[in-house]
Design a protein that fits this description.
single chain, 365 residues, 13 strands, 35% helix, elongated, eight-stranded mixed beta sheet, alpha/beta, 13 helices, five-stranded parallel beta sheet
């Protein structure tokens, strides 16, 4: 397959000394990894903390009083991986912004507490931020509901129209624009890749957060592709971490030969437990977020989230220069990455076909 279809993306190390207030369970990249092009740099885990944090260097009193330096809020329900933050900061640098000099960015997250997330948005409104970058649906919704006039640039949102964040991708309307994540469309692609890894796959289990009604879009996509591939689907809805053990036992009992997760903040927060259960029950699994593969999962395929955060700075720059969110079309991902973990494959007793390995952007050995 051509490189245009399987583009790689470079990961960027984010110094942990800047990351006060993030979760400690974000895994580091395994010590030995192979990526085409530039080598992979080790990602340091975030330090544990309270959930709300200012990472930008302090501005001088004169600059603050002059009011000439734009203030940006970057918010997320869960603590973002360090590479997300560094991707955004890279994008700012590419457009001439230097934090603490000609822009200030307040990075905030709520450790999964939506009530705290709303309080964070209210705080940003009080300090009169000029723009909010909202990562993932929960943060985007909290920002949109409270900040009705402040421009919002969303990232990592599966379907902005279904979430009613924008009127359409081409004409967002209102004060929200940004980047769609296309998770429903990719769920079927992940099943195809899992079948490529396991040619004899005839039954697949689908683990998803039943409390997230939007995951039904992903589920329908998987079921449609499964029917075309002659693969039976067993759904494993869960509502809390206590449901994981029973879900995996049900998958094994039914004879599932593989697993797909429909990822959202809940499953991502519990990725280590999900990965370990998949290995324990010898279920080859395909995930939608690369942090699962980094945590020891077999495979992941999805949009390059670092690139999407980097590109968010493009819209930040345009809006600060006078563009209106309503006039900026929502962009869709242009870079995707397939990650295969050979250590997991060995633990599962699975041999990944060379044809599939050749299409991977990164192979973890």
């Amino acid at each position: 397959m051509s490189r245009a279809r399987w583009p790689a993306s470079e990961e960027i190390e984010h110094p942990s000394r800047h990351c006060q207030g993030a979760r400690a369970d974000h895994p580091a990249v395994p010590p030995v990894a192979r990526r085409r092009g530039n080598p992979v740099m080790e990602r340091r885990a975030f330090l544990a903390g309270t959930g709300a944090v200012l990472l930008a260097p302090p501005l001088s009193a004169e600059a603050q009083q002059a009011g000439k330096v734009p203030r940006i809020g970057y918010i997320r329900a869960e603590a973002p991986p360090a590479v997300d933050i560094e991707g955004f900061r890279q994008g700012l640098r590419e457009h001439g912004y230097v934090e603490g000099k000609n822009i200030v960015v307040e990075y905030r997250w709520a450790d999964g507490n939506e009530q705290r997330l709303r309080a964070i948005v209210a705080e940003l409104i009080r300090v009169k931020v000029d723009l909010i970058v909202a990562s993932a649906p929960a943060a985007t919704r909290a920002a949109k509901e409270a900040a009705t006039t402040i421009p919002i640039v969303m990232v990592l949102v599966a379907d902005p129209v279904a979430f009613e964040f924008v009127a359409s991708l081409a004409r967002p309307g209102g004060n929200v624009t940004g980047f769609a994540f296309l998770l429903p469309e990719l769920s079927g692609k992940r099943l195809q890749l899992l079948k490529d890894a396991i040619p004899g796959l005839s039954r697949v289990a689908v683990l998803w957060n039943a409390a997230n009604s939007y995951k039904t879009f992903d589920l329908k996509e998987v079921q449609a592709v499964a029917e075309a591939l002659n693969v039976a689907v067993q759904t494993l809805p869960v509502r809390g971490p206590d449901d994981f053990a029973d879900a995996f036992q049900a998958a094994v009992k039914s004879g599932a030969g593989g697993l797909i997760t429909l990822d959202d903040p809940f499953t991502i927060a519990h990725r280590s437990r999900i990965v370990n259960l998949a290995l324990k029950h010898r279920l080859p699994a395909m995930y939608g977020v690369r942090s699962f593969a980094d945590a020891g999962g077999l495979m992941s395929y999805g949009p390059d989230r670092v690139d999407q955060n980097r590109r968010a700075a493009i819209y930040v720059d345009k809006i600060l220069k006078g563009a209106k969110p309503a006039d900026l079309p929502v962009e869709q991902p242009t870079k995707f990455e397939l990650v295969i973990n050979l250590k997991a494959a060995k633990a599962l007793g699975l041999r990944i076909p060379q044809s599939l390995l050749g299409r991977a952007d990164q192979v973890i050995e």
